[in-house]
Amino acid sequence: MSVNPMAYEAQFFGFTPQTCMLRIYIAFQDYLFEMMLVVESVILKKLDGFPGCKISPSQIRKSTEKFLLFMKEHFDKLFSTMEEVLLQLVLNIPENVLLPEDRVHEQYPYTKEQFQALQEEIQQLQQQYKAEASAGQALRAELEEQNAVRAELEKVLQWFDGLDNICREHGTSNFKESFAFLTQNSKKLKDVLKDVEKKSNKMKKHDRLL
Q1: What is the CA radius of gyration of the chain?
Q2: Which of 153, 176, 178, 177 is nearest to 164 (CA)?
Q3: Is the dihedral of CA 8, 3, 71, 27 positive or negative?
Q4: Which of 19, 83, 93, 119 has the greatest number of C-beta atoms within 10 Å?
Q5: What would the pLDDT profile of 164-191 be if each residue is shown by its tens digit?
Q6: Which long-range contacts (CB under 8 A, 24 or more apart) does 93-102 make?
């Protein structure tokens, strides 16, 4: 069998010419084996009509195998010649023939150096794309963080607006005065809480005595 890869022919036919020739070879060989079995069976039937014949079936099988070996050797020689002719004249695409899908290479020819430079440029663009994608992901993460901070700031602003409204309701418009007012109220609330806790403890003791 030919060792030439014939990749261009495989692109055109959809299969390698060597694979085609191998299948033809196997098909012919199988047909030869089947034919010899048929011949052997016919000989055995003919011998059944001659009771005095001293040729045994095993001798016929040996003779059939020898004849099959002889036929196979000649077949291999003939097939080798046929394969060479088919691969050169039938399954071969001449060098001056260009497939339709490859005509773009004829319109835009590239040397090996130009192709290498193009490959390097593609790699650089891929790396640049990956870097930009990574930077974009980092920016999106930062934007999400900023949105979260903005939401918290809006809550603080709302709290200050509510605080300002409360202070105005109590007649304090100055921010420092507002904080002083809140501090005083906070102390009052703490005192009230302590008083409530004392009374609660007294009530618990009284309940225990009862």
Answers
A1: 50
A2: 178
A3: negative
A4: 83
A5: 676 666 665 555 555 566 666 666 666 6
A6: 93/8, 93/9, 93/12, 99/8, 99/11, 99/12
3-state secondary structure 118-132: HHHHHHHHHHHHHHH
Q: Where are the domains of the chain?
A: 7-107, 124-173, 177-209
**Alpha-carbon distance values, 121 to 95, 134, 139 (Å):** 31, 20, 27
Residue 50 per-residue DSSP state: -
Question: Does the model's pTM come out above 0.70?
Answer: no
State both tokens at 73. 């050797």
User: Residues near 64 by Cβ (< 8 Å), separated by ≥ 6?
Assistant: 36, 39, 40, 43
Burial class (CB in 10 A: 0-12, 13-18, 19+), 120: exposed
Are residues 64 and 36 in contact, defined by beta-carbon separation less than 8 angstroms?
yes
Looking at residue 86, the DSSP 8-state letter turns out to be I
> What does the pLDDT read at residue 13?
83
